[in-house]
């Protein structure tokens, strides 16, 4: 059976709107427990076809996040890197418990995202 221990913490943020990329900041950080999941080849290549690169997968128990975690938000897991949430899939784990599976991509750009 898969490892279903949610013992890491990631923080989910919204990206504030600004008139220039330099004025946009990560705001409203909310912590969630998560476990890391494998990025399987099929998901990796589906993302590539859509012009994305999935660099990490994270699974959050849904009672911890409800449906508030959505695509196009950002998160910082324990590795300290900033990831863009490409997809937030609401599903069930191997025990039938509701979870949200996050497909994460390292954002590309010439500017740095800052925490508020």
Which key features would you list for this structure?
116 residues; 6-stranded antiparallel β-barrel; mainly beta; 7 strands
Describe, in plain words, how this protein is organized in 3D.
The chain has 116 residues and is mainly β. Helices cover 11% and strands 43% of the residues. It contains two helices and seven strands. A six-stranded antiparallel beta barrel has the order 1-2-3-6-5-4. The longest helix has 9 residues, at 41-49. The model has no long low-confidence stretch (mean pLDDT 79).
Summarize the structure.
The chain is mostly beta strands. The chain has two helices and seven strands. Strands 1-2-3-6-5-4 form a six-stranded antiparallel beta barrel.
What is the general shape? globular
What is the number of helical segments per DSSP (H or I, 4+ residues)? 2
SSE order: EEHEHEEEE
Mean pLDDT: 79
Helix content: 10-25%
Itemize the secondary structure elements and their pairings.
Elements: E1 8-15, E2 25-37, H1 41-49, E3 56-61, H2 62-65, E4 74-76, E5 83-92, E6 98-105, E7 114-115
Parallel strand pairs: 2-7
Antiparallel strand pairs: 1-2, 1-4, 2-3, 3-6, 4-5, 5-6
């Amino acid at each position: 059976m898969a490892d279903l221990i949610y013992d890491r913490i990631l923080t989910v943020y919204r990206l504030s709107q600004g008139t220039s990329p330099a004025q946009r900041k990560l705001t409203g950080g909310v912590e969630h427990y998560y476990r890391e999941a494998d990025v399987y080849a099929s998901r990796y290549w589906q993302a590539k076809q859509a012009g994305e690169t999935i660099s990490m997968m994270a699974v959050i128990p849904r009672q911890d996040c409800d449906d508030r975690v959505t695509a196009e938000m950002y998160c910082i897991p324990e590795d300290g890197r900033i990831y863009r949430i490409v997809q937030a899939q609401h599903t069930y784990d191997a025990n039938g418990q509701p979870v949200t599976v996050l497909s994460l991509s390292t954002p590309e750009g010439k500017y740095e995202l800052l925490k508020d």
